[in-house]
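Key result, reporting period 2: structure in, sequence out.
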């Protein structure tokens, strides 16, 4: 009696990524096909869908990391108090499992990233740097001449802003003088 061979790619997700839903099956059993899409369908995912999977993977990574922190926070320091060896072994096992899952999630994230970069390499390249370095020459942006109505409206807005700034300056000076007087009176009372 020979065991059926597992199908190609049955233990992996997209493009060789380990599946998060992979369960340990007894030897000789075939994983259900409902969990894995056909191999051709894997190549038809859009970069947007892959980015959403990547976002969910990052959320899983954060969740696993928080669980690791909770386990380590709940573990008492070995300060001479004897605790049950079984409790330590259980926590150590949980910690090891979370670390193993984290490694798998980071591999999955790396593969998603590489696949997205591969799929979007032919798109229009974005700016290499959003903020230029100091001393780097800026390329001037061509400015089209505005209509006279726009120029007039801009002048009106600038004049309103100047007036408001002047009013704010007067109010700030009055508040400063008032605070100065209050502080002077408080020091005279003492």
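The corresponding designed sequence is given below.
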């Amino acid at each position: 009696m020979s065991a059926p061979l597992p199908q190609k790619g049955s233990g992996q997700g997209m493009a060789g990524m380990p599946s998060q839903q992979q369960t340990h099956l007894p030897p000789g059993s075939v994983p259900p096909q409902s969990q894995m899409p056909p191999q051709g369908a894997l190549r038809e995912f859009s970069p947007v869908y892959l980015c959403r999977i990547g976002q969910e993977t990052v959320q899983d990574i954060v969740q696993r990391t928080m669980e690791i922190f909770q386990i380590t926070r709940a573990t008492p320091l070995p300060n001479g108090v004897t605790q049950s060896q079984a409790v330590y072994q259980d926590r150590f096992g949980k910690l090891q499992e979370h670390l193993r899952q984290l490694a798998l999630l980071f591999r999955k994230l790396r593969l998603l990233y590489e696949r997205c970069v591969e799929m979007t390499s032919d798109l229009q390249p974005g700016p290499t740097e959003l903020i230029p370095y100091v001393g780097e020459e800026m390329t001037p942006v061509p400015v089209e001449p505005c209509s006279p109505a726009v120029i007039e409206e801009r002048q009106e807005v600038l004049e309103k802003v100047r007036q408001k700034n002047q009013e704010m300056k007067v109010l700030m000076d009055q508040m400063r003088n008032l605070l100065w007087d209050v502080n002077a009176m408080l020091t005279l009372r003492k």
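Residues 130 and 138 are 12 Å apart (CA to CA). Residues 1-42 have pLDDT under 50 and may be disordered. This case is discussed further under Risks and Mitigation.
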